[in-house]
Amino acid sequence: MLNIYFGPMPQAIYDTSSYFNNVYLDSWLDEKLTQDIPRAIDKGVVLSSHAVETRALGIIPVL
Fold this sequence. Notes:
The chain is α+β, with helices and mostly antiparallel strands and 63 residues long. It has a domain at 25-61. The chain is built from two helices and three strands, in the order ααβββ. The chain has helices spanning 16-23, 32-42, and strands at residues 45-48, 51-54, 58-61. The model has no long low-confidence stretch (mean pLDDT 88).
């Protein structure tokens, strides 16, 4: 379901890039589910905690 909200929201994250950079943990890519997601979408392979290789984009940095 799609919800659309207008106006300021204290719990909303507006700058997702900065938020991700400040909360990302290297250990996230060690988990099986996290490795399964790029594999299911694009036959991607998690190479390390900082790189994923995909068919469409080649090797991409996580951060």
